[in-house]
Design a protein that fits this description.
The structure holds 3 protein chains of 3 kinds. Chain A is mostly helical. Chain A has 7 helices and 2 strands; from the N terminus they run ααββααααα. Helix content of chain A is 67%, strand content 4%. In chain A, a hairpin with a 2-residue loop joins strand 1 and strand 2. In chain A, helix 1 packs across helix 5, helix 2 runs antiparallel to helix 3 and helix 3 packs across helix 4. The longest helix of chain A has 33 residues. By secondary structure, chain B is an alpha/beta fold. The longest helix of chain B is centred in the middle third of the chain and has 14 residues. Chain B is globular and about 55 Å long. Classes of the chains: A mainly alpha, B alpha/beta, C mainly alpha. At the A-B interface, loops of A face strand 1, strand 2, strand 4 and strand 10 of B. Bound molecules: adenosine-5'-diphosphate and magnesium ion. Adenosine-5'-diphosphate binds next to helix 1 of chain B. Magnesium ion binds next to helix 1 of chain B.
């Protein structure tokens, strides 16, 4: 759903750019709590994965292409603030170097995928975790759910923006039906992939999963006898 | 005795997945010593080494114990100085070299220490000369041979002027000539050295003292010749001398 | 995976454009695209001027047009959308080649195609003439927040790591008679994505640990002083947006 140059009118583009800039500023501040010594490379890797995932495109009825978003995956792995930064980087690189999504539509794309996608995904994950048993195995299920709903939320937002500031007079209900039905399908794919990736990572490196941190408990390690120098 | 350069007490560590790698390590190394840290695969040698400059530690997972470098405890607030004092040459030079040219890579550490201009150039030049790689300064590291890359990796660390040089399996994957050249470089150096290896002749050639790390604890500590000659000890910890090698004879 | 793109986009040559400092090129590309987007729909010759200016820049960069066109395929789904628009859009209808299509849809499709194509070619030209490492330096000089540049730096580095790790894993899989095309094997493929994530992280983690070990605190030390920018370079960088601005101004005056 990368919005190209000239797709939405100037007012809408500027408005979403302001939203995106505000979100990035807040995320730069918020992410300081999420980032430590080793989380910058983790954020970079999450960005790489999302970059690759977004290359898998599906045609969407009545127009644009749809693809995996990765917002929920990023939020689960690195926390929502850093996730917004990851998506910003991915979308920026795509716009600058790959011509995927217009440079002037960058604000719109960041708002859709980096703010709506990330925060809806994160909220759903947190909410579902709060009603599920406090176990690591709950995390992938919650992540999958977050993946599904984040995609649908982003598609709805896109349709809304188009209804307000689309430069082409397309029937909004045609677009809405097309976007929602296709993105529900994409959302199911996103749910499965998010759950599987998070499930594997939580199994071997729970320390790399942001939302799983509170689920671990420290204990004293045993020792063995040795010689002393 | 003076303050040891390296003072480790009761070090335990479990990786985030729960694998416990260190089970209470105690080790002291004094200034000017060259110590070989021997042990079978999976003994915890690399895990131990990564604790010495605070790359691994309680904050990255679970663990306890204390480490001091020349009297300075390894803590969050001392990390910058600790990382200047402890120079680690990683097992795989490809993990260590990440800048576009050899010169930039060697300059990376001293530049982080705040050196610039002529001072920086001097540090870089000196380190490259010590490992005989001056002629390759403007080449990209990934275009060098494996042995050359390991030498550059040593230079990146020497450029920090560390108090203790820690080498993780320095002779692995080297052909015999590169292996010998690296030994000559290490023998020339005037710093405290902790050398992780399972190349036993290498340990004997370069280090007067050896310790064996096995099952996450130090199980032996003594003069290298005596440690290698203890057949029972060696066999118990899966350390095998190359065929025809006799530690009692001068090589 | 498409992960190899980081390098294949760059076209090696020694041209004036390749030598321009990255931050100038980024600013120039951004300014140009903004002006292209601001060009009103229905206009024709300003688009021709934009395209001409871009072609001159491509020529100066010594990047073959075929090279860029091949990489412009990212635009395909979007072209399909533009082509569909005259049929699905509302409004008064006209006959084109015997087909009844929406007139505003037709105009919008034309403008979309023109803007989209110009935008895509500009971005590709920037990528073809700028190494990823220089791009990072350029973004930092344009005051992009350090945290974003840092994440982008790790992303660029991880692209290679992930691609290499993925290749290793697929060799291991195919040598055990795994067939990625058979749907029966897709669950395995999906699960191996998680493994790929952890393996790539751990591979890159060691590099990061090596950086930390040598005193890295979040930003790469700038080893070389930034090269002085000559007036000729500023002129060259400003050329593209200036021409576009003139075309726009001309259009406003002449209609
Ligand atoms: N990142 C890791 N996560 C979990 N376990 C690990 C990790 N790295 C090493 N281990 C385990 O810790 C133990 C010690 O490993 P290591 O220190 O690499 O041994 P050595 O260097 O002596 O061969 C081994 O059992 C190994 O499997
Ligand atoms: Mg090891």
């Amino acid at each position: 759903m990368h919005v190209p140059d000239g797709f939405l009118d100037a007012t809408t583009s500027v408005a979403t750019a302001v939203v995106a800039a505000g979100a990035i500023a807040a995320s730069l501040r918020g992410s300081r709590r999420e980032l430590d010594d080793r989380s910058a490379p983790l954020a970079g890797l999450v960005a790489t994965f999302i970059f690759a995932a977004q290359m898998v495109n599906f045609p969407v009825a009545a127009g644009t292409s749809g693809h995996l978003l990765g917002g929920a995956l990023a939020a689960v792995l690195v926390g929502p603030w850093t996730a917004t930064l990851c998506l910003t980087v991915v979308l920026g690189v795509q716009a600058l170097l790959f011509a995927d999504g217009g440079l002037t539509a960058l604000g719109t794309n960041i708002t859709l995928m980096g703010v709506v996608g990330v925060w809806v995904g994160y909220a759903v994950v947190r909410l579902s975790l709060s009603v599920m048993p406090r176990r690591l195995s709950s995390v992938p299920v919650a992540a999958g759910l977050g993946g599904l709903l984040s995609v649908v939320a982003a598609a709805l937002t896109f349709t809304g923006l188009f209804a307000v500031g689309g430069t082409v007079p397309v029937q909004v209900d045609t677009l809405l039906t097309g976007m929602v039905s296709v993105h529900t399908l994409i959302g199911l794919g996103e749910a499965v992939l998010t759950a599987l990736v998070v499930g594997t990572v939580v199994g071997v490196r729970p320390d790399l999963v942001h939302v799983a941190r509170s689920l671990r408990s420290p204990e004293r390690l045993p020792t063995r006898p040795g010689v002393h120098s | 005795m003076s303050t040891p350069v390296l003072d480790v007490r009761g070090l335990t560590y479990a990786y985030p997945d729960g694998t416990q790698a260190l089970w209470g390590v105690d080790l002291h190394v004094h200034r000017g010593e060259r110590v070989a840290l021997l042990g079978p695969n999976g003994a915890g040698k690399t895990t131990f080494v990564l604790h010495l400059n605070g790359v691994l530690g309680p904050s990255s997972a679970q663990g306890e114990g204390r480490i001091e470098i020349s009297g300075m405890p390894v803590r969050r607030d001392t990390l910058a100085e600790i990382r200047r004092r402890v120079g680690i040459v990683f097992q795989d030079p490809d993990d260590q070299l990440f800048m576009p040219t050899v010169r930039d890579d060697v300059a990376f550490g001293p530049a982080n220490l705040g050196l610039r201009g002529a001072q920086l150039d001097e540090r870089v030049g000196e380190a490259l000369e010590r490992v005989g790689m001056t002629a390759y300064a403007s080449r990209p590291p990934h275009h060098l041979s494996f042995g050359q890359r390991r030498r550059v990796a040593v230079a990146t660390v020497l450029a920090m002027r560390p108090e203790i040089l820690v080498l993780d399996e320095p002779s692995s994957n080297l052909d015999p000539a590169s292996r010998r050249e690296l030994a000559e470089i290490v023998a020339e150096l005037d710093v405290t050295v902790l050398m992780v290896t399972h190349d036993l002749p290498y340990a004997l050639q370069l280090c007067e003292r050896s310790v064996i790390l096995s099952g996450g604890v130090i199980v032996a500590d003594g003069p290298t010749r005596a440690v290698l000659a203890d057949g029972e000890l060696m066999a118990a910890h899966r350390l095998e001398l190359p065929f025809g090698f006799d530690p009692a004879r001068r090589h | 995976m498409g992960a190899e793109h980081g390098h294949t986009l760059h076209y090696h040559a020694h041209s004036l454009v390749h030598r321009l400092p990255a931050h100038l090129k980024i600013a120039s590309a951004l300014g140009f695209v903004l002006l292209v987007v601001a060009t009103p729909r229905g206009a024709t010759w300003p688009y021709a001027v934009h395209l001409l200016a871009l072609l001159v820049a491509m020529r100066a960069a010594r990047v073959p047009a075929a090279y860029l066109l091949k990489r412009a395929v990212v635009e395909v789904p979007f072209v399909a959308f533009a082509l569909a628009m005259p049929f699905i859009a509302t409004g008064p209808r006209v006959d084109v080649l015997g087909l009844s299509v929406s007139e505003p849809g037709l105009v919008a499709a034309g403008a979309l195609l023109a803007k989209g194509t110009l935008g895509v070619l500009t971005a590709l030209l920037l990528a073809a003439t700028t190494e990823p490492a220089d791009l990072l330096v350029g973004l930092a000089r344009l005051r992009v927040p350090a945290r974003l540049v840092e994440i982008m730096g790790f992303m660029v580095r991880y692209v290679d790591v992930v691609a290499a790790e993925w290749r290793r894993m697929s060799v291991a899989r195919t040598s055990r008679l795994f067939d990625a095309r058979s749907p029966r094997h897709w669950p395995v493929l999906a699960r191996s994505l998680g493994v790929l994530f952890v393996r790539s992280y751990e591979r890159g983690e060691r590099v990061h640990l090596a950086m930390l070990s040598r005193g890295y605190t979040g930003s790469l030390p700038t080893l070389a002083a930034p090269a002085a920018i000559g007036p000729a370079q500023v002129l060259a960088g400003a050329a593209l947006p200036t021409v576009a601005a003139l075309a726009l101004a001309g259009q406003a005056v002449l209609g």
